[in-house]
Task: structure prediction
Amino acid sequence: MDRLEYDVIVIGAGVTGSAVARELARRERRIAVLERESDICEGTSKANSGIAHAGFDAQPGTLKAKLNVQGARLMKELSEELDFPYRQNGSLVVSFEAEGRERLQELYKRGEENGVEGLQILTGDEARALEPALSDEVAAALYAPTGGIVCPFGLNIALAENAAVNGVDFYLNTAAVKIECEQDGYRILTKEKEFFAPVVVNAAGVYADALHNMVSEHKLHITARRGEYCLMDKKTGGLVKSTIFQLPTANGKGILVTPTVHGNLLAGPTAEDIEDKEGVNTTAEGLARALAVGAKSVKALPVRQVITSFAGLRAHEESGDFIIEEAQDAPGFFDVAGIASPGLTSAPAVGVYVAEMIQARFPAPEKSGFIGARKGIPCVAEADNEERQRLIAENPAYANVVCRCELVTEGEILDAIHRPLGATTLDGVKRRTRAGMGRCQSGFCSPKVVEILARELHKDIGEITKSGEGSAFLTGYNKETCM
Amino acid sequence: MEKREMICINCPLGCILSVSRNEAGEVTVSGNTCPRGAEYGRTELTAPKRVLTSTVRIQGEKGRVVPVKTANPVPKEKIGDCMEALKGAEARLPVQIGDVVLENVAGTGIAVVATKGVEKELIMKELCSDIEETEQWCSEIMEHVRERIAQGNTLKGTGAYE
Amino acid sequence: MRQDIIIIGGGPAGLAAALAAKEAGAEQILILERDRELGGILNQCIHNGFGLHTFKEELTGPEYAARYIAKVEQEKIPFLLETIVIDIAKAENGDKAVTAMNRERGLFTIHTKAVILAMGCRERPRGALNIPGFRPAGIYSAGTAQRYVNIEGRMPGKEVVILGSGDIGLIMARRMTLEGAKVKAVAELMPYSGGLKRNIVQCLDDFGIPLKLSHTVVDIRGKKRVEGVTLAQVDENKKPIAGTEEYIPCDTLLLSCGLLPENELSLNLGVSLNPATSGPYVNESLETNISGVFACGNVLHVHDLVDYVSEEAAAAGKYAAAYVREAADSQTREKTETACAGSETQICLEAAEGIRYTVPSTISPSHMEDMQLVRFRVADVYKEVFLKVYFDGKPVVSQKKRVLAPGEMEQLRLKKEQLQAFPDLKKITIRIEKEAG
Result:
């Protein structure tokens, strides 16, 4: 078995692992990211609310509070540097009874302590003046103008791609099966390869406890907290401009109603602790709850316009805060665990924070020629006609529409496949281009995308999968078995 | 005495027919509301037939198939045998609608014919069908087409379907 | 570049509309088709049963399409393939500006006097049905599976459960069985099938495939690929009944739960849609509320027989040609503009008890022909009832119907002379009644 040696190995190519890898790549280091799935952005990072939280939720003094506010501040600039969709749309926490005002006041104070700017408490009518679709039951609201929405895939993929461009090696389909302490470092065993590095970053999401517990006596326990969502047609995205939260509960920020950066409307998440760390199944009760509770926030939630539903798992650690530290009894093993909400928002700050922590303990010289900027895949749907003409002149494939609902062209799909860390699966193409995310939910375009993937990857269409091994679309040829 | 219940498919009414055949071989139909129902019941009991449609592979063209049908209805009980026979059948390019792909399928005396024309290569016909007289509305396209035709006489998509 | 008529979609509706428009004297006709070939969804409908009304013989989908395609080529009606229309906008002089893209020509805009919408429909996806469970590979709309099996010759699964007894689902139950898959059950939420009777007999009964009425899928198992689904019976409110769950191991779930007209282009143009059909409101000339924009086929309302699509599209083609002719004369043109608003010159058709909708929604007596065809669907299964038509509340027609079902489109013929007998007629009401009255 080959032994691959690195200075730092990051486990997990979700948004946190990718952010850490990118920040580490600013210095002279050999870095690898190990990902168990067939693509980046396959776990918690792909199924969440897509919110850049303003930062008034977390208890002052916690890592969550600090990194949330820092992450939110970094997000705009980062979205320009790395070219992913982000919009500061503001958020409202609404309360339905007059007593709720006290709890809003509490959030307001927390927000101020955390350093959130521009917070304001509004009466129900003031809130409705801002968002006419708000329910008449809304008695008061906390307005946070710095709240935003971000494409979770866009952020994750941009960070990972940029890390790869800066020399980070990504190993997909490479689950860390076993981690052993060696002198001066850690041996990481995967199914096919063996890795070694003095520094390991554990960004394994819901599995971070399992990895941590392989090297440390101070055990972590992470619970998968399932959140179910309903996504509505783009026709409905204009119902509200800002993100509408209800007062937070013990289990999280409650069920929100928000436009997405791409103009859909999203309702969710529920919160339910489950045993199965891969239990991303939706339930009849959960979906009904997401819609019923979401419907309280606004006058008419267009529940008949739901085009898809999904569930994601937050990695909830018992302490309630992010666990970002070097394990006490495992030098060089850095946990980035319990990254539940606001993990997406915090990711850019987590990257910086972890890189600084590692630099303090394992210094490396600055690298010349770090490429900070990245240009995303062009988006024909959102381009104006002049830009479209330019793209088509560059490659006529930008005129060949493959996904008609989201107006995604063959050119964009070719980009998605041939970029660094390119897509190899249908879901990979979908997250990079939105092909199949529209109202027909890939009914028309999936055979075409499968065909393009097969052609470009020099495979048979029978080998193309939805999301890696075991998820092939086709099971054989006609007439292979008798009727 | 043989007796079966069946739903008549002649019209949306969907009468539930009771069809029976006595020892002498006489068939009686009840439950029908019109003569067509009686006829349907009789045939379904004595000699049900179906037109079978499927696809067959195209010789030498990996992954391409052409749709086919039996030129006439075949006995229902032969459908499995017909499918088995189609397993090995291949059509040859160029295929025209009505081309016989398989004679006397499964001993039924009925041929299997192609139901779609297939050319060797996908030709974007709209651009090259009437070069001479088409069309003042888009001279630029026509110029492009003439160029492409001069090069190779077919107009495939840009790399997509080769 | 200026066209007389641009037809959006080269499926059965677009082809028939183009031929009829040409026959009615329109000159500059252009068909824009987004796929690689003309014929639309017929290309993957390789089963037979098409054309009984039109050609008096049973054809397969590709054969039916080929007859129209051959005529379009013979008539030298130009068409562009792999060309997607991204916008239709109003332009000067009542023209429409159609913006489209293709590889050969990039992005281009063509002005036209009239537009015929013939974009067809799409299938209702899983999300719209809110089926809980995992989201693995192996869940397809019936049409997607049909494409794999019939166009690519590839099997999307070996053990199949089908949700929805729409015609495509029934047809795919037979196709997949013939090609070697085991279809374990077809579940239908409603207490009746949405498909044609002959498809239930020839696609399910012939192969012993159970049809479970008043059943739905309440869970999907399998993280990477479908491993099984749980069916449950539903009550009269379509809610699953606890204790009736049945787990069926399978690797594939096909969805055949209804079709939705694809009207995003129409919406952007400002065409108003009928919520009952998700297709445009049209008048007797199949013209939408936007003057010079016509609709036909499944983009107007979902049909079950392609023959009716062709027939309706031919009418749209003819009316569009007449519009182009009249548009040359500004006086008649203005009349057409105002006639669409539902004013004094128009009679409104009301879909009352038991009728989901009618096409058309309005009739302008001055524009109608000697006989006006009204197509509609009923809301439920009715047996031994009367189809009644009232002119401003006065009974005019009473037809005895043995059975009416939502799965089968119905039609009614109104004669011009019947309407002329009521000079101030405002409203025609169609309803289902139990008594002959």
In short: Chain A has a mean pLDDT of 96. The first strand of chain A starts at residue 3 and ends at 5. Chain A touches chain C through 58 residues (CB under 8 Å).
